[in-house]
Structure to design on (143 residues):
């Protein structure tokens, strides 16, 4: 099986929920494959978004490109609907002024149909997520 970036809209991924939205920086920008676009939060924390793969996938590596994110929690679900999330990863991310944050996580071939990303705190009153990349393979379709 060929490894792909499972979090691209061109691979079938979809952002099905986001707790904030700005018309110039919508949540779909996270998975559009364009390094110049981003989703921005619009205030209080926590803020979250859910990525649906529309199939069961095996994730080997995650890369999160963001700005001003201080603490990020990631939960996963293997259910057919976005329910029964379990705590998966929690990271404090280093901020360097004027540079995008790049957090790389080796995922030990964990499986998911949905990922919920929760920004619990930030270095400012807003934060931005430029992209989520999930390297892996599709395991099976949801039926």
């Amino acid at each position: 099986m060929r490894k792909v970036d499972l979090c691209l809209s061109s691979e079938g991924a979809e952002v099905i929920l986001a707790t904030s939205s700005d018309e110039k920086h919508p949540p779909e920008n996270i998975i559009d494959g364009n390094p110049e676009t981003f989703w921005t939060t619009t205030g209080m924390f926590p803020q979250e978004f859910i990525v649906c793969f529309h199939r069961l996938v095996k994730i080997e590596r995650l890369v999160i490109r963001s700005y001003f994110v201080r603490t990020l929690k990631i939960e996963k679900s293997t259910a057919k609907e976005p329910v029964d999330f379990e705590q998966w990863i929690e990271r404090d991310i280093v901020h360097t002024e004027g540079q995008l944050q790049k957090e790389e996580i080796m995922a030990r071939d964990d499986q998911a149909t949905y990922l919920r990303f929760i920004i619990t705190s930030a270095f400012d009153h807003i934060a931005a997520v430029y992209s989520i990349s999930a390297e892996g393979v599709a395991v099976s379709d949801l039926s």
